[in-house]
């Protein structure tokens, strides 16, 4: 899949860097001073726009669908190793330490510093210059530090990030353009058949669709 033409653009002679063992979806857009380290997953419609400042996505991180990463002149936007940026989130000129999770549709503003293994709740707004200590949860608009994270919460975050690291490898190996089928075929395989995910076993109320 990675052999397909990516939406990658240079500006002022500066071209994005993508490690060959990372997956960037062809519908994501990378512009200018962007660095994607090894083992990352960049989802469809993500925009990483390094036309004012540098954007660095460290090893093993994921930037999911419809996320926006941008940086202002003189500053870097950094996602630390094993970072986890949920669907639709915005990270702007911020510094995220290793193993940070930013929830869906959250916004992390300029010069914010998010400590190692911290979590930002979904739809939260982290103000300019805010600091979130390591291994703490911040949430709300504006986001406030609520409490220290439990060992179980941290373990579940690591497991979820590992799923995206596996997804990067799966996409590199098997994601291909295709035409839709007209009918639901008999014995249709499930993409999750071989995926081990601890949280799935705890969501007893969620059941597979009866067609399966």
H/E series, N to C? Answer: EEEEEEEEEEEEEEEEEEEEHH
The CATH topology name of the domain at 7-148 reads UDP N-Acetylglucosamine Acyltransferase, domain 1
pLDDT under 50 segments (min length 5)?
none
Question: Measured on Cα atoms, how large is the radius of gyration?
Answer: 18 Å
Please give the oligomerization state of what you see: single chain
Structural class: alpha/beta
Identify the overall geometry. globular
Strand composition percent:
25-35%
- In CATH, the homologous superfamily of the domain at 7-148 goes by the name Hexapeptide repeat proteins
State the helix count: 2
Largest sheet composition: 12 strands, parallel
Percent of residues in helices: 10-25%
How many individual β-strands? 20
Mean pLDDT: 93
Q: What is the terminal-to-terminal distance?
A: 28 Å
CATH architectural arrangement of the domain at 7-148 = 3 Solenoid
Keywords:
single chain, 212 residues, alpha/beta, UDP N-Acetylglucosamine Acyltransferase, domain 1, twelve-stranded parallel sheet, eight-stranded mixed sheet, 20 strands, 14% helix, 32% strand
């Amino acid at each position: 899949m990675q052999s397909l033409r990516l939406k990658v653009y240079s500006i002022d002679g500066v071209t994005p860097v993508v490690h060959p063992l990372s997956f960037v979806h062809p519908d994501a857009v990378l512009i200018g001073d962007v660095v994607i380290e090894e083992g990352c997953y960049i989802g469809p419609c993500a925009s990483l726009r390094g036309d004012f400042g540098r954007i660095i996505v460290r090893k093993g991180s994921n930037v999911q669908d419809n996320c926006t990463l941008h940086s202002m002149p003189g500053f870097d936007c950094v996602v630390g190793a094993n970072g986890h940026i949920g669907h639709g989130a915005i990270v702007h000129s911020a510094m995220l330490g290793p193993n940070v999770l930013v929830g869906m549709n959250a916004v992390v503003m300029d010069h914010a510093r998010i400590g190692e293994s911290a979590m930002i709740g979904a739809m939260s707004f982290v103000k300019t210059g805010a600091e979130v200590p390591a291994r703490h949860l911040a949430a709300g608009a504006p986001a406030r530090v609520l409490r220290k994270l439990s060992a179980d919460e941290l373990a579940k975050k690591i497991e979820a990030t590992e799923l995206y690291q596996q997804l990067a490898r799966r996409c590199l190996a098997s994601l291909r353009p295709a035409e839709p089928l007209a009918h639901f075929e008999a014995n249709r395989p499930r993409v999750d058949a071989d995926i081990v995910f601890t949280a799935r076993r705890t969501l007893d109320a969620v059941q597979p669709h009866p067609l399966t």
